[in-house]
Amino acid sequence: MVQDTITNVNVLCEKKQKTDKASGLKRFDAASRLGGIKPSGIRCFFALAQGVPDVISLGVGEPDFTPPQHVLEAAKLALDKGLTHYPPTIGIVELREALAEKARQDYGLSYDPDSEILVTVGGTQAIFLALQALINAGDEVLIPDPGFLCYEPSVLMAEGTPLFMHVHEKNGFKIVEEDVISQVTQKSKMMIINSPNNPTGTVLSHGDLAKLAKLAVERDMLVISDEVYEKITYDKERHFCLAAFPGMQERTLVVGSFPKLTP
Predict the structure, then answer these.
(1) Are 189 and 209 in contact (CB under 8 A)?
(2) How far, in Å, CA of 166 to CA of 26, rounded?
(3) Lowest pLDDT segment from 51-55, 192-196, 255-259
(4) Average pLDDT, stretch 228-237?
(5) How far are the Cα atoms of 8, 44, 75, 148 from residue 154, in angstroms, in the given order?
(6) pTM listed for this prediction
(7) Is 154 helix (H, G, I), strand (E, B) or coil?
(8) Which of 89, 92, 97, 248 is the most buried (most CB within 10 A)?
């Protein structure tokens, strides 16, 4: 049944691609750099489930709660005050200061809100921009597999080479240091770490992250630490910020996301 579902999703994606090509003018053909970008199976599955009665969608990684009431009221108040114009390019200063304070309170990290914090349109844009700014053609980027669907295409769009850090059930779907070391080469410039992980839900322990941090320092690698699910942990699991480990703050880009914060 699972294989049938995957096949149906792949067929849906292929049909959509053919429809897009058939309906557009030639001048709107996709740029050649998009040739290696595969359609998102999750998004195709999500589209397939839309409109089907009595289906609980597990296709998109979003919490099932609405923002807290005080957040909704603050948004309404901002609209009433006419705060609808262009903000500073790097984000509203009060927001950047609040984010700096959050990092200090939660993880003991000190960031300059004017030079070390950037507000983007979601975590995906932050990751995309970071890769565009830091990866040159041929640079290798290690990404978890399975992992968030935007990692691989974002690396390819930056003309980088994705290397896959495969995770396995026997290891609790955790990234194992030995498997990462086997992938690293002289061209490896960056790795993307995601904890808690999408889609496996795995939370890396302090010990797990310490090993990855040590490896990053020893191999002089940059790290994008995708921590958008930092507040969504269960049982006795605890989230640790990778930038708080020795030698990591100066080589780590921490990515967060407001839609994933719990009430």
Answers:
(1) no
(2) 39
(3) 51-55
(4) 91
(5) 25, 18, 31, 11
(6) 0.84
(7) helix
(8) 248
**Residue count (the chain):** 263
| Token output for 94 | 């009060």
Q: What angle do CA 246, 250, 251 make, to 5 degrees?
A: 90
- Report the alpha-carbon distance of residue 33 to residue 131 in Å, rounded: 15
* CA dist., res. 117 & res. 63, Å (int): 25
Cα distance between residue 235 and residue 203, in whole Å: 11
- Kindly state the helix (H) or strand (E) to which residue 171 belongs, with its residue range: none
Amino acid identity of residue 24, one-letter, is: G
Q: Do 132 and 158 touch, CB atoms closer than 8 A?
A: yes
d(CA 10, CA 155): 22
Q: Which helix (H) or strand (E) holds 78?
A: helix 69-80
Average pLDDT, whole number, for the chain? 88
232 Cβ neighbours under 8 A, 6+ residues apart: 63, 196, 260, 262
